[in-house]
Predict the structure.
Amino acid sequence: MRIPFHKPYITDEELSEVLDTLKSGWLTMGPKTLKFEEEFKTYVGSKYAIAVNSCTAALHLALRAANLRENEEVIIPTMTFTATAQVVCYFGAKPVLVDIDRETCNIDLAEIEKAITPRTRFIIPVHFGGQPCDMDEIIYMARSKGLIVIEDAAHALPAIYRGRKIGTIGDITCFSFYSTKTLTTGDGGMITTEKREWAEKIRILRLHGISKDAWKRYSDEGSWYYEVTDLGYKYNMTDIQAALGIAQLKKVDYMWERRKEIARKYTDAFRNSKFIIPPLEKPDRVSAWHLYVIKLNLEAITIDRSRFIEELKRMGVGTSVHFIPLHRHPFYKNTFGYSLDDFPSAEWVYERCVSLPIYPQMSDWEIEFVIESVCNVCKRFER
Ligand SMILES: *Cc1c(COP(=O)(O)O)cnc(C)c1O
C-alpha cells in the first residue's frame, strides 16, 4: 500500500522514554504510570485520571464503579465498536442500541428519549470520529431521569465541546490508546472523572481488587502486606506503555493541528463534489479528527462502497469502514433480536461511509494523492 490507512507517529522521544524505563528495572505499573496519569489529567483538566490497559477495560471498570446490575439497560449508539456494548453484556445487562444522526454519525437525541425505560441506568455516548456528541442535551436528559453518563471517548483526544475539553464533561470518560488512535501506547486506556469515590474504586479494581497502592509493595516505600478488598481485574497499565504515553502526550497538540490541517484540505477538495459528502463539523465544538469519514453519493456513481474501497486499494490508498453497526453483528442480532429496519440512519451511513487516511506523518503529497485517487474513482464510475 503506497498510503496505508494509519501509521503511528513514533520518534526518538518515544524510543528514549521507553529505553529509560527498560533500563530502570521497573517495567510494570509504577512511577511512569503515575507520571502519565498526572500529566494526562493536567492536559484534559480533570480531577482524577486512572490508567488502564485498554479503553475496553476502562468502560468495564466505569460500569463496575457506578454499579451496573444484571437486567438493567444501557443506551448505546449502534454506530460504534463492539467494546462499547460488550462490556455491558459482562454484567448480564442489556445494551439498548439506538440510531444515529446522519450528518455527525453521533447518537440521535430523539432516539435516546424513546429508548429510556424504568430499567435504564446509563447512557454511553460515543464521540464518533472525534466530534463531541450533544453533551449538554444528553446530560440534561440524564439528570432529569437519574441516569449516569459514561463517555466513550476512544476517538476524542483531544476534542472540545462548547469550550470544555472532553474528559471533564460526563460522569466518567474513557479514552483509548490503541495503536490507531490519536495517542498510542500500543494498547492502553485512561479513565477520567471528577468523583473521588469512583476514582478510588477504579484504582482498586484495576489491580485485582487489592487495597490502595499495594503495588508499591516492591518499592522502597512499600511492605509485603496487602489486602484484597474487592473482586478486581488485571487491567493495569505498565510503565513501558506509560513511557510511550508520556512521550506521545508531549506532541498531542502538534498531532491534532496536523490532523485538523489534513481534514481542512480534504473538506476543501470535496466540498463541491457531487460524488462525496464530506463530514460535518458543528460550529460549537472541535473534533479530534481521529477519523475522516466521507459518505458516497450512491445516486451519482455506478459502484457500491465495497467496490469503491477495492478501487482505492488498487490505486494504493488504504481505507477502512467505521463502523459495521452493532445491530448487524450476529452476536447482538441473535442475543437481542435487533433488525435492520430499526436503524435507518445507521444503515444509510453504513452503505456509504469510507474512512480516509488521516495521521500526522502524511505528507502534503500523500494528502493530494488520496484526494486525486478518490476523485479519479468517482469520475471513472460516474453514473
Ligand atoms: C477503539 C475503540 C474502543 C476500544 O478501545 P481499546 O483501547 O482497543 O479497548 C472503544 N470504543 C470505540 C468507539 C473505539 O473506537
About this structure: The chain has a mean pLDDT of 96.
